[in-house]
Amino acid sequence: MTPALLWMVVALVAVGVEVFTVDLTFGLIAVGAGTAAVAAAVGAPLWLQGIIGVGVALAGIAFVRPVALRHLRRSTPQTRTGVDLLPGSTGRALSALTVDDGRITLRGEIWSARLDPDVTTVPVPIGTNVVVTRIDGATALVHPIDPPTN
User: Less Cβ around it within 10 Å: N or C end of the chain?
Assistant: First the structure.
């Protein structure tokens, strides 16, 4: 087996390990082994192949890996899904809403709802547009978009 082929086998094994660890260490070792394979292919002596391979891998681990990990681990804004997505959504009252009871349509579904007592306690008539302030179990706490004028 030629040295270039041996280095490529080392690189492929390192890539295989990297797939399972996703730590970028073995990926950079694979890059080092790949550069050693190129050095072997152009006729560099074995000691130089080793120095090139190890040097490239260590340089990558020391300088490239920290920057790459910082970008990979950068916190992304939390994606809201499910009921976490509902606060701020608008709906329409299907029944009179009070602080105790009511029904609304919300995103095409019928929800039990009640007025959010932190915002208002004035009953809301049928057909009023409402905004969800929070979800309590399976009940939407809402307040009217345009409060009824009495």
Answer: C
